[in-house]
Amino acid sequence: MPLIWVNLAIGLRNWADRVPWSWPRQDLPASLMHYLIDYAASRGINEIFGDVMAENAAMLDLCRHLGFKITAVGWEGVLGVSLDPLRR
Question: Where are the beta strands (DSSP E) in 1-88?
């Protein structure tokens, strides 16, 4: 079962912190997520999942908007997100 795991709480933020200030930062997380979903679908990957800090309202809103399922993972302050990019 092919899948992609991304630490959404850390991975995108660490990458975004290294982006030049001249780039439009507001749409960067959404653009990266769309790219990741499209890439996964093109490769036949049937699951993308990751962890998001519960206080990261912006990322949780983005995940909801993109159709991710959000669940408790058993760690305080952390939520799991998952999506089947082939069923979007």
Answer: 4-6, 48-53, 69-72, 78-83
Mean of pLDDT values over 19-23: 50
The whole-number pLDDT of residue 32 equals: 83
Enclosing domain of residue 59: 4-87
Measure the CA–CA gap between 44 and 71, rounded to whole angstroms: 24
Structural domain tally of the chain?
A: 1
pLDDT recorded at residue 53: 86
pLDDT tens by residue, 28-43: 778 888 888 898 888 8
